[in-house]
Amino acid sequence: MARRREHGQSPMSGERSAPPTPAQDAAAPAPGAASAAPGRGANEPGEHALWEDRTRVMLQPIAAPSILGLFGLAGATMMVGAWQAGWYGTAATPLILWPFVLLFGGLAQFLAGLWGYRARDGLATAMHCMWGAFWIAWGLLFGLVSIGAAPVALAPVLGTASQGFAFWFIALAVITGLGALAALGENIVLALLLACLAVGSGFTAAGFWTPSNWALDVGGWLFVATAVISLYAAAALMMENTYGRTILPTGKYRAGGNIPGGRGVRPLEYRHGEPGVKIGQ
Fold first, then answer.
1. Three-class SS string for the chain?
2. CA 223, CA 240: separation in Å to the nearest integer?
3. 11: confidence class by pLDDT, cuts 50, 70, 90
4. CB atoms within 10 A of CB 184
5. Higher-pLDDT residue of 32, 222
6. Cα separations (Å) of 18 from 2, 15, 23?
7. CA angle, 220 as apex, 162 and 167 as ends, to 5°?
8. Contact 184, 191 (CB under 8 A)
9. Of 3-17, 22-36, 62-76, which one has max mean pLDDT?
10. What pLDDT digit, counting tens, does each position of 211-268 carry?
11. What are the two backbone dihedrals, phi and then psi, of residue 115, each rounded to the nearest 5 degrees?
C-alpha cells in the first residue's frame, strides 16, 4: 500500500528533499514577466518588463506648437518685411499693421513657444517666445503712437537713424543666429529659416543705425524669404499631423522624415497602439 508523501518528500524516493530557501524564492521570476535581457541573470525579469510593470505615464497629448508659431512668424514677417523693402505702403502703414502684428505675430507665437516648452522642445521655446515678445513690443510701440499715447517722434521711420530701435534687431540677430546653429541638429529647413531671419535682422539693424536704405531693403527681402520658408515648414508639420506621415520633406537627418509617405518620428509606445511619449515636435 502506497504511503502518502509528506510535504517536501521526493516523489522518486522515500527521502525528504530540503525545503526551498528564501534566496531561491526571490530568484523565481514573477508570473508573466518577459524573458531576461542579454547580460542579466536567467531568473531575473527583463528590463522592459520591469519598466512596464512599474511605470505609469499620464499623457496630455498636444499638437506640434510650431504649426501656430511658424504661421504667426510668417504673417508678421511677410507684412512688415514687404513694407520695409518698399513694396507697398507709406510711413503711416505700421499704424494699420500693428493690431495684426501684435496678436498674430506676437501673442499667438509667444503662446506657441510656451506650448513648445511642454513639448520639451527647447529650440521652439526660445525662438517663438523671443520673436513673439519682439512682435508684441513692435505692436505696442506703433499702437501707442497711433492712439496718441506716445509722441510720433518715437516711431522709427525708414531712411532715418534710430539707434535705439537698431539695438532691438542686434539682439534678435545674435540670438537667432545661435538658434540657427542649434537647428542644424534638427532639420535643414528650420536651420535655413533661422539663418535667413538672423541675417535679415542684422541688415535691418545696420539700416536703422547708419541709416541706410539699401540695408533696410535687403533686410526686408530676407524677412519675406523667411516668411516663405516659415509657410513651408508650418505646412509640413501640419500635413504630417493630419496624414500621419511625411508629405513635405524638411531635411531631417532621419531618412524616413525626408521621403514622402515615410515616418520621421518613432515614438515610444506601449503595446496595442497606446499613445507614447517623445521629445520635440
1. CCCCCCCCECCCCCCECCCCCHHHHHHCCCCCCCCCCCCCCCCCCCHHHHHHHHCCCCCCCCCCCHHHHHHHHHHHHHHHHHHHCCCCCCCCCHHHHHHHHHHHHHHHHHHHHHHHHHCCCHHHHHHHHHHHHHHHHHHHHHHHHHCCCCCHHHCCCCCCCCHHHHHHHHHHHHHHHHHHHHHCCCEHHHHHHHHHHHHHHHHHHHHHHCCCHHHHHHHHHHHHHHHHHHHHHHHHHHHHHHHCCCCCCCCECCHHHHCCCCCCCCCECCHHHCCCECCCC
2. 26
3. very low
4. 15
5. 222
6. 22, 10, 14
7. 30
8. yes
9. 62-76
10. 999 999 999 999 999 999 999 999 999 999 899 888 999 988 765 556 665 555 544 4
11. -70, -30
Q: Is 280 left (phi over 0), alpha (psi -120 to 50) or beta?
A: left
Question: Domain coordinates of the chain in residue numbers?
Answer: 65-243
Beta bridge partners of 252: 187
Cell 505700421, residue located:
94
Are 216 and 159 within 8 A, CB to CB? yes
- By mean pLDDT, which of 66-75, 141-150, 189-198, 244-253 is the weakest? 244-253
User: CB–CB of 214/65 below 8 Å?
Assistant: no
Cα atoms in the Cβ-side hemisphere of radius 13 Å centred on 257: 17
Q: Residue 154, Cβ neighbours under 10 Å: how many?
A: 13
Q: Is the pLDDT of residue 202 over 80?
A: yes
The number of angstroms, rounded, from the C-alpha of 226 to the middle of its chain's C-alpha atoms is 17
Question: Which residue type, as a one-letter code, is found at position 135?
Answer: W
Mean pLDDT throughout 156-169? 94
**Helix axes of 122-146 and 66-84: crossing angle, nearest 10 degrees:** 40
